[in-house]
From TrEMBL:
<keyword id="KW-0862">Zinc</keyword>
<dbReference type="GO" id="GO:0008270">
    <property type="term" value="F:zinc ion binding"/>
</dbReference>
<keyword id="KW-0238">DNA-binding</keyword>
<dbReference type="GO" id="GO:0005737">
    <property type="term" value="C:cytoplasm"/>
</dbReference>
<keyword id="KW-0346">Stress response</keyword>
<dbReference type="InterPro" id="IPR041330">
    <property type="entry name" value="KN17_SH3"/>
</dbReference>
<keyword id="KW-0694">RNA-binding</keyword>
<keyword id="KW-0539">Nucleus</keyword>
<keyword id="KW-0863">Zinc-finger</keyword>
<dbReference type="GO" id="GO:0006397">
    <property type="term" value="P:mRNA processing"/>
</dbReference>
<keyword id="KW-0233">DNA recombination</keyword>
<dbReference type="Pfam" id="PF10357">
    <property type="entry name" value="WH_KIN17"/>
</dbReference>
<feature type="domain" description="DNA/RNA-binding protein Kin17 WH-like">
    <location>
        <begin position="52"/>
        <end position="178"/>
    </location>
</feature>
<dbReference type="GO" id="GO:0006310">
    <property type="term" value="P:DNA recombination"/>
</dbReference>
<dbReference type="GO" id="GO:0006281">
    <property type="term" value="P:DNA repair"/>
</dbReference>
<dbReference type="InterPro" id="IPR019447">
    <property type="entry name" value="DNA/RNA-bd_Kin17_WH-like_dom"/>
</dbReference>
<keyword id="KW-0963">Cytoplasm</keyword>
């Protein structure tokens, strides 16, 4: 076998010796060559190729140092971002993983003499958050990727929107209460004053007018009696007697008739209530509505969190998607409740005579546990109705 043969004992021995990391002081960064011992490094420094590299570096040493520094910084930061993300980690742990690559750029060829200087430089440039502790320096990568920033802003906006809906509803109720109190305070109470006549002659004049009217009425009655005569009086008396005889029967029939009408009204109201009760069902789940998880069996991660109903199975079971995490869960109707949005939002009526009807939330009546809705679809579009809290929910 020749000396350069790949399977020769010498070649195999050289490969075994070159495994793993070698000593840094026997590494030439300009030639990117690692020597195994001092004699090999001395021979390399005397070689023609090394001398040519030194001549190139001597022409513009700053250019080569900046190049190696930039390579070292880029590889180090990329490893920190990919391996540890935004976690806080000791700088030596990152550096040990970085130098495990045999082809890495050595620090002695960069502008930084020590790892501490490099860590401080990362903090000054704003690439990482650095802090010194008794155990050494810790670094934390700052993620400035536009996609990551956009995702974080979107999550913050969703969270803020949910809080704004609840706060807006609370502020609306507080504003209504405040306006009611202000209107009561500003209403002017009526002032009652004593009637005072400026002229005493007015009192006497009023008395004369009343007396004159009584006299005219008395004269007219006397004239009528004289014209009609005794026959008219007899006829009137007979009719009055007959009227008295029939008055008791007519009063009883009228009272009976009035009672019948009242009973009819009561029966109509009872029929209306029975009809509404027959329209109501014991299931209310609908797709594309927002619900709130109220069960604690799933843990604090999902308790009191909102979700969107994506599918309803067998009327009483729903497949929901959590708004925060995106997780999909299968829940029973008893494990969720309806969500009341802020006034002005769209809702879906899930139970009662207007079931499956979209509506617009106008106001909330906390005293009677209901809300005023304006129907936005169906044959009753535009109608305002009062619906209980459990009979409508926010649309997704």
């Amino acid at each position: 076998m020749g000396k350069a043969d790949f399977l020769s004992p010498k070649a195999i021995s050289n490969r075994i010796k070159s495994k793993g990391l070698q000593k840094l002081r026997w590494y030439c960064q300009m030639c990117q060559k690692q020597c195994r011992d001092e004699n090999g490094f001395k021979c390399h420094c005397m070689s023609e190729s090394h001398q040519r590299q030194l001549l190139l570096a001597s022409e513009d040493p700053t250019k080569f140092m900046d190049y190696f520094s930039d390579e070292f910084k880029s590889d180090f930061v990329e490893l920190l971002r990919r391996r540890f993300g935004t976690k806080r980690v000791h700088n030596n742990i990152v550096y040990n993983e970085y130098i495990s690559d045999r082809e890495h750029v050595h620090m002695n060829s960069t502008q930084w003499e020590t790892l501490t200087d490099f860590t401080k430089w990362l903090g000054r440039e704003g690439l990482c958050k650095v802090d010194e502790t008794p155990k050494g320096w810790y670094v934390q990568y700052i993620d400035r990727d536009p996609e990551t920033i956009r995702r974080q802003e979107e999550q913050a906006r969703k969270k803020k929107q949910e809080l704004d809906d609840e706060e807006r509803s609370a502020r609306f109720i507080e504003e209504q209460v405040r306006r009611g109190r202000d209107s009561k305070e500003t209403d002017e109470t009526p002032v009652y004053t004593e009637l005072k006549r400026e002229n005493e002659e007015e009192k006497g004049l009023d008395f004369l007018l009343v007396s004159l009217r009584i006299f005219v009425l008395f004269v007219s009655l006397k004239v009528i009696n004289s014209v009609l005569g005794a026959s008219a009086l007899k006829t009137a008396a007979a009719s009055s007697t007959k009227r008295k005889d029939t008055s008791f029967g007519s009063d009883s029939r009228a009272e009976k008739k009035k009672k019948s009408a009242l009973e009819e009204i009561i029966e109509m109201e009872e029929k209306k209530k029975k009809k509404q009760q027959s329209v109501r069902t014991d299931y209310w789940l609908q797709p594309n509505i927002v619900v709130k998880v109220v069960t604690k069996r799933l843990g604090e991660k999902y308790h009191k969190k909102k979700a969107v109903v994506t599918e309803v199975r067998e009327n009483y079971t729903a497949v929901v998607r959590m708004i925060d995490s995106g997780d999909k869960l299968k829940l029973d109707q008893n494990h969720v409740e309806t969500v009341i949005p802020a006034p002005g939002k769209k809702v879906l009526i899930v139970n009662g005579p207007y079931r499956d009807t979209e509506a617009l939330l106008e106001g909330i009546d906390e005293k009677h546990f209901c809300a005023t809705l304006t129907l936005d679809s169906g044959q009753h579009k535009g109608k305002r109705v009062d619906v209980a809290y459990e009979d409508f929910s926010k649309l997704a």
